[in-house]
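request received
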Amino acid sequence: MNNLTTVGKKIPKRDAPPKATGSAIYIQDLKVPGMLYGKILYSKYPHARIKGLDTSRAEKLPGVRAVVTASDMPANFRIGVMKDNPPLKAGKVLSIRDEIAAVAAISAEIAEEAVSLIDVEYEELPGIFDPLEAMKEGAPLVHEEAKSNVLKMPWKLVCGDVEAAKKESAYIVEDTFSTPWVTHCCLGTSGCVAQFDTNNNLTMYSNTQIPSLAQNDYIDALSALGLKNRRVRVVQCVIGGGFGSKLDTYAYEYIAILLAMRTRKPVKIIFSREEEFFATSPRQCTITKISQGCDKEGRLTFREMEMILDNGAYTSWGATTPSVMMLPISSLYKVPNIKYIAKCVYTNNTYSQAMRGYGNPQATFAIESSLDQLAEKAGIDPYELRLKNANEPGEITPQRFKITSCGMKECIDEVVKRLDWKGKKGKGGNRGVGMASLIHVGGGARVYKSDGCGTIIKMDDFGKVDVFTGASEIGQGSDTIIAQIVAEVLGISIDDVNVINNDTDICPWDVGVHASRTTFVAGNAALGAAKKIKEQVLEVAAKLLEEDPASLDIKNGVVFSVKNSEKTTPLGKALRKVHYTLGGKMLMAEYFYDPANENFDKEFKGNLSVSYAYGAHGVEVEVDKETGQVKILNYIAAHDVGKAINPLLLEGQIYGGGLQGIGYALGEKMIYEKGYLKNGNFLDYKMPTVKDVPYVQPVIVESDEKDGPFGAKGIGEPGLVPTAPAIANAVYDAVGVRIKDLPITPEKVLKALKEKEKGA
Amino acid sequence: MKDFEYFSAGSLQEACSLISQYKDVGKILAGGQSLITLLRQKLISPTCLIDIKGLKELDFIEFDKKSGLRIGALTTHRAIEKSPLIQEKYNVLSEMEKSVASVQTRNWGTIGGNLCSADPIGDPAPSLIVLGAKIKLVSAKGERVVALEDFFTDYFTTIIEPDEILAEIQLPPPAPNTAVEYMKFATIEAGIKIVSTSVAVTVEAGSDVCKDAKIVMSAVAPVPLITKKAAEMLKGKKLTDDVIEEAAKMAASETDPTTDVHASAEYRKEIVKVLVKRATKKAFEKAKKA
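response:
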């Protein structure tokens, strides 16, 4: 692998110049001829009965082309994984983001004014906003037709015998941890343009991160709307960040479709920043009870966790995050006995969705905080406890994950070395160090029946290549990575590889951007397609050069014989020859890669991913004991990535993840009070800014994954998984207080310090 | 944002005439850093905006040994931050400006606009008040000069008449043996601050006895709050750690902050104590050397 020309090189992101110069076309920029502007009326109350709805004033406003309400939607049409969410609500509203009506008008201003002219008469109802209250016997039901507020998704994982292990444990700790709602903060807000042609086929311009699955959702919607067997084309604009927020389809998209159907005009709906805060779905908040034990030598004996998740009023994919939480719960470190139960509970709050890490950060916060408590109780250095129990290659975990490559120990060692752990741990002076590790899927994840991605590749007369991939570029760098892989295989310059990724009419099928799968799955698909077309090229060139194809290779765009250095031909020449010869052929190849991973069985066991990503973060903090302010002095993020296809982009993923994790750890929280969002703007929502962020030092550990493209594993999500517990552990080391409820605000730290003082 | 009529004033005189004509429905647009946000959030809906941004006659920083400093209302935050004159003679203002929002905002936002928007968390007011600032208000009918500490009356409210324009800020020459220190606390650096304070300490020449002190807080009351009792506790005393600590406690007891999404009232009071203590100590040390 030392002879690589493109893979492994620090190649700048291809989409950076258009984004930096403003020439990239985001959904916000898109204008389609004749386009109308849609706007949604949301509920005024988190729980209320709609007693009257009068749209007549809005309809009369000049410039308004359509006003729609629930009565315009098919009565039984529901969206979401549990089909519990009508895109337009009638009868009752269950949260402040409930859509009641929508308008299409000739300008955004008129649409907004029209929405304000819709008269709704509400009868406010008492709501239920605390999942613990909602679980109680006799609690008012959020969905009246359901028998309970607890979602019918019984998450339960049992491996070994936890009760027996407890009896044999020398040390046991037990505690409760909680995490808040946080939001993705995409710079590009949600939006779409729905457009019908004269045959009622739909084109949806969108910034979805699941084009193929969204296409399927829209087809279902068209059927419900009476348009059966219509074509749907999804065209993605440049996507201004996803982080999981665009992993589902939402009411606004179906409302745009309905408005476009009504008006026979393209209709655009773009969320304002305010809507992006309150009307999109955040990371789910959790309450986690955890107990862990170890023997006298510090070997982990069991891990038991019970979790309650606030599901909000409706169900998106977020309700399935407990399945991914099982990953660290069962397999972060070697733990023979596992028990995990999670309940998602309906409330009148906002409903949650996928967000980078998909539950893993919430679970890892509890696990890694608790692990430090256990280390203290057992009198073992937290680093040694981690190292002693670290995962290893060849291991099969209790949930039946087959661990292939695993650089966990190397990551822990890097953190310890670079942080000067031994010199700094427990040294006082209001300074402290902390660490936490992570496991995540790194070789796709079979959460659907398929985990596949298709790729088509073609070569033109000049030796240039077009790659049609199912993968979506959402800023993570997939276009650059795919181009690198194809260029490497074909022995051409990356500049000669064009990646087309944004149109379901052209691009092959893919599950979507999730589970850190793009480099691994789409990368392997591109690799397969590139190898296939290379064979064709060499066959063609072999005829031209009168040489055995097996003796040929390509370098710098020139086909050459490894046996006879005089036998060469530029790639373009070989290709033109086949195109311009009677009975010629066109060079094109396709490849569908679906990793050999497994769906979970009924007990939630199985090898979810063909490989797993590991990492460890270490942090040194200083705590101001008078204000409670936590300052990060040093941050090390070591990641086992298999192989760095592009170290520059990889470091970008690690910075980005780390900083998002620091926001999660120290400041970000969506403050909901009785169903209302109190801080839905960037002034009140504490996302770190450039002034706040420390230098996150990325450390790349390469473990060469046998199934990965050139040895690579996924890295999209891991960067933020262990951040919060690493910081919480460092705060504890610095001043002896443990914050168990994220975020670790100065106010909480100060309060804990004062309580500690009183107790002492 | 609702539609409005837009005027670009060519002179201060023209601006005064326009605002006297449109005083009931108009607003003055200076840097726009607060106003545009309020318009977008529909918290205000004026039907007329009078843009004074381009008026050179209100964009100046001038110093005279006897009369002191004059800052034109349209001077940007960035210009104050970067002014060598201010750095030399009123360095606290330059230091304070560095912490105002972001560079982009400082490039557009003006000192006059900031004061007139009267946000109780505004950065400049506390330091200007401890420095003894006065402001000149002009209208078609004439002009008046008032002390800045008398300017603010409530959240986002001042004594300015609907036909008046803030033209300049006046500061007396720097007092001898005096130092001013500004400190702020926010959970994230560029975020909304929880508390800020500006403390001025004057020492007897050649001694470490505090001759005079002034402490002004922001974000703890509807207007910049002068904690007089705390300042009194410093006067005539050697500023030992104990004296400062007691004064800081007094400052906290003089405030009556509210609980909001950023912090609880109790926490704000704690931070008042810490900031007043730290700022007073630092100002005192500097004043001794001044």
